[in-house]
Amino acid sequence: MKVDKSLEMETDFNPYYKMMNSGLKTTVNIGDEEYIDLASNNYLGLANDERIVKHSIVALKKYGLSMCGTPIASGYIDLYENVQFKLARFVNLDRAVLLPSCYQANNGLFKAITKEKDLILIDHYAHSSLIEGAQATSGKIRLFLHNNILHLEKLLEKREKYKNVFIVTESVFSTEGEVIDINKYIEIAKKYSAYLVVDDSHGIGIIGPQGKGILSDIKTEHDKIIYTASLGKGLANQGGIIAGNNELMEYISYYLPQLIYSTALVPAVLGGIDKTIDIITNEFPQIKNKLDRNSSRLKSILKQLKFDIVETSMPITSIKAGNSKNAFTIAKNFYSKKILTTTFITPSVPQNQSRIRLIANAGLREEDMNKLEDKIREMVL
Residue limits of the Aminotransferase class I/classII large domain (predicted)? Predict the structure, then answer.
């Protein structure tokens, strides 16, 4: 098997696997050069926060590098349980379980909780981890048109022969920053007595008046919500969670292979998550203000320079790039000005709908934004 390198040959550029030799500060180092980071998901700029690093070191010194066991065995330390409880309370659900990644959470969830006579209705543009997880089951899978409640309801009307129905979507579709109307999804899930599975990876730590994610906006309760999220984006750490009602989560804690057969998250990461939640709880309005200010300024700059960007309320700026070659060329132009971006081409996005994603995180100072604006203008003019 060989990697198709035709785009790299045509553009003399590869936007992937750029090796950095620094952490995520206001700039990152690649070789001897400094780059402005618009590529990472470090939305709140907390990945190198000294308070979080210090808390991680305290946990590291107390527990060591690893507990060298799965959560069901020797990996279940008091810090692990405390962080699970804290996360569940943060997202306003009964209970949560921690996994090494949200990809593992989504991959394993459906096989653990669905049976042959169940129906899984999943958004056409859902993350690959959700789709792959659904495909690993014996249940019936149907895709509904992207964020299309009317099409979803048509499929739900034909649910009679199925025992359980699962509606699966994301809170924020990260390529373009599109946000779902969570209340409409809860309403339709309740109407048809369906489970609602929502991946809030790009919402937790960002959405809502306190940064508690998509569920902070709900107007009605629904006891069949299953929530997953990455802890490596807004929460600036590592790992993933599944959260829901007590009965479901107790079942998952014993029957999810990705949980019970994976070494538990290491203490340093648990310490980091623990402190990050405290910081978001106490400082979110100030941090979010910086994030929104930086994001708005970046979008304004790009619009002035006639870039075709996707409109969204999220701090995600997505440039419409057309075909894959054009996407590589745009990314190369940014890179030549020492700006890191994220490039999405097929199969991650539909053919000729490539995107260049930029996230101006809350950690960028005014002088960083000034420098960024100068570099983008130089690139275009």
Answer: 34-375
